[in-house]
Amino acid sequence: MNATYLNELGLICALGNDCREVAAALLAGESVGMQVQSGWVPGRSLPVGTVKARLAAIPDKRHDTRNNRLLLAAATQIDPAIRAAIQRHGAARVAVVLGTSTSGIQETTQGIRHHSLHGQLPEGFHYSHQELANPAAFLAEHYELAGPAYVISTACTSSGRALQSARRLLDLGLCDAVLCGGVDSLCELTLNGFSALEAVSNERCNPFSANRKGINIGEGAALFLMTREPGRVALLGAGASSDAHHISAPEPEGRGAREAMRKALADARLQAGQIAYLNLHGTATLHNDAMESLAVSAEFPQGVPCSSTKPLSGHTLGAAGALEAAFCWLLLSEHNPDNRLPPQCWDGVADPQLPPLALVGENGPGLAVQGPRYLMSNSFAFGGNNVSLILGELSNLSGVPR
């Protein structure tokens, strides 16, 4: 298998409006975008990870959703590189593979509310807003691409699988460049759904704590330009599993999660001890954190520096896999010259019923090991859907035969 490179990254989320802002806030363990808001769930005020940037409207009303506005904001950051790739390879050789779980469902919710009040749908309403494939169709039309364009929607692993699928397109020779990643926007449907599952916390989420009470929802977009052309950061490994344990609860022993991590390591031809940092799925729900603790402690018996970044960004659902891979990309980039790691933001009260993890912070490692840097990111989803990704630096690839 040829090495696959993540050459460029466009990024927007509650941590900031571009790579520089996100990296600074990520490494400082700060997020001004995590704010308590009312109006999403009746009778509740909840912390949510909100993008504060003013997002440009999209002239084509078929595609003018907040989801696509977030996607466009990310794409605009790397627009010159995208257009250069199209010029170099041709429109038919550039693909789009994205992950989402919300698409434009919030616009549909607003449209239905308008209809119930006024007896008609609002001006500019399009059924296409809610189509899961809409983000890929929008981006392909925006850049006049003729290559494969599709969306993967597997709940919280959607965009992790999108990166894996994008790499497969390159390996099969079906294209020469892929715009890949994920996007999800805040919407009433998901917030009320998770609230009905009693999975949403009234406080900032507290991963792996004995006091954890559930998730915070966030929004964001992460868009990579992936090619076979050498760059600083490569997607070295991807592993996926589907244990199908339950429609919403994870397999309690973490067998599917561990299988995804093991497959990613095998794909990258690395040993667990070579991973310098693990971005945990870490949703702060009782069952996910328990399962992931068991899986990580089993797969990394010597320990691995790790943290959950969801208290900073919120859980961005379908965008989470790509967003947290983007965080790893930032750690390997010029935005992190000191090789720092994102701190674990929690109350420090470890759950005595869980295996201890090497959480980054005051009592844990704060710097990545010197030498080769290989970083892993976990994403786990409803239905027992699990994905692990491994990113590494170009300078280290000579030791990893492809």
From TrEMBL:
Swiss-Prot/TrEMBL keywords: Transferase
GO biological process: fatty acid biosynthetic process
SMART domains according to UniProt: PKS_KS
GO terms for MF: 3-oxoacyl-[acyl-carrier-protein] synthase activity
Matches recorded under Pfam families: ketoacyl-synt (PF00109), Ketoacyl-synt_C (PF02801)
Pathway assignment: Lipid metabolism; fatty acid biosynthesis
A GO-annotated cellular component: cytosol
Ketosynthase family 3 (KS3) domain boundaries: 1-393
Signal peptide per UniProt: none
Family that this chain belongs to: Belongs to the thiolase-like superfamily. Beta-ketoacyl-ACP synthases family.
Name of the molecule in the record: Beta-ketoacyl-[acyl-carrier-protein] synthase family protein
